[in-house]
Amino acid sequence: MKKILKKLFVMITVSAAIYGCAAPPLPDLVWPEPPDEPKIKYLRAYKGSVDFSGSGMATNLLLGGEAGMLLKKPMGVFVGNDGKIYVTDTANSDVFIFDPKKSKMATLGGLGAKIFYKPIGVTADTDGRVFVTDSQVDKVTVLDATAKILGYLQPDEPFKQPSGIIADSVNRKLYVTDTHTHNIKVFDLDTLKHTGTIGKRGKEEGEFNFPSHLGIDNKGNLYVVDTMNGRIQIFDKDGKLIRAFGQFGDAPGMFARPKGVGVDSEGHIYVVDAAFNNVQIFNDEGQVLLAFSSYGSDRSQMILPAGMVVDHEDYIYVVDSWNRRINVFEYLGEKSKARSSQVKK
C-alpha cells in the first residue's frame, strides 16, 4: 500500500510540474494600506522572455538562441506610446524590448545592433527611433524601429559618461545627461543637432553635481536627478529653472541615493532611492506625499532599484536591479478609474 501511495504521489507531483495547477489568487498589494484609500497598486514583474508566450524558455530549449534570455543587471527603462518596454542591461550589454500587447520579447542585439558595451539610458520618440546612451564608450546611438543604426549624436564637446536620456516629441527636443561634464545637453529632435546646454558644476540652484536620470511631464518640463547634490531640479521647455527640492538625509522626503524619476498625468513626481529601496511620491511643490515598496525579493519589493518611468496611462515601471526584473505598479488616479469604468460597462 505504501508503494502505491508513493507512486501516486510522484505521479501527481510530475503532473503538477508539467501541466501546472490552479493556485489561489495572491492578495493585492497597495499603498497606503487599508483603511486608507489606496493610491498605488502592484501589478507584476518582467524578468525576460519567460514572461512572454511568443518567446518563452521552452522555445529556447528546443531551438537555442535569445528566446531564453533573462535580465542580468537592468539599469534604465522607458515605455513608448505603443506600450513597448525598453530596458538597458549592462551585464548583457544589450537593450531588451518587451512587447506585452503581442506577448513577445526581443533585444536590439538580437535584431542586429550588437554594438553596446555599457548601455545606461534609453528613450524612444513618436517617430519610432530609439536612443541609447553608452557610458563606457561615451556615445549616444540613434536607431530606427528595426534596430538599424542611423548614427550617433554629435555634441559640440564630446560626451563624458552620458547616462540619462529623454525625448520630448511634442516640443521636439532630446535631453541627454552628460554626467562627468555636470550638465544636460539639448538636441533638436528633428535635426539631432546640439542646440544648447543646461547647467554646470556647482551647488547653487540650476547647477549640478554628477546628474543622472531624467524625466519629463506632459507640459514638457524636464526633471533632473542632481545625484550628488541630493535633490531634484525642474526646468521648463526653454531650460529655465522652475524649482529644486530635496536634500540628503534619512527622513521622509529626503534622499540618500536618488536614481530614477518620473511624473504621472496628474503632476505627481516619483523618485527612486537605491538606499531606501523604495519610491517616494511628491507633489509639484516638492512636498512628500507617500512612499511605496521596501527592501526584499518578494512581490513588489526591491534591492538596489535604478531607473524608472511613468507611462501615459499612469503605469509605473521601476528597475529592480539586484532582483533582475522590472516591477510594474499602477497609480490609482483618474485614468485608472476611467479604465475601471470601461471594464464595468
Round the Cα radius of gyration to an integer and report it. Answer: 21 Å
Secondary-structure class: mainly beta
> Could you give the order of strands across the largest sheet?
1-2-25-24-23
- Can you count the beta strands? 25
Give the N-to-C terminal Cα separation: 56 Å
Unreliable runs: 8-19, 56-67
Strand content: 35-45%
Helix content: 10-25%
Main sheet: strands, sense, barrel: 5 strands, antiparallel
Give the overall shape: globular
Task: Tally the helices.
Answer: 3
The ordered string of helix (H) and strand (E) elements is HEEHEEEEEEEEEEEEEEEEEEEEEEEH
> Mean pLDDT score, rounded?
91
Structure description:
It contains three helices and 25 strands. The N and C termini lie far apart (56 Å). The chain is mainly beta. The protein has helices spanning 2-19, 57-63, 334-344; strands spanning 30-31, 40-46, 74-79, 85-89, 94-99, 104-107, 119-124, 130-134, 139-143, 149-152, 162-168, 173-178, 183-188, 194-198, 211-216, 222-226, 231-235, 241-245, 258-263, 269-273, 278-282, 288-292, 305-310, 315-320, 325-331. The protein is 10% helix and 39% strand.
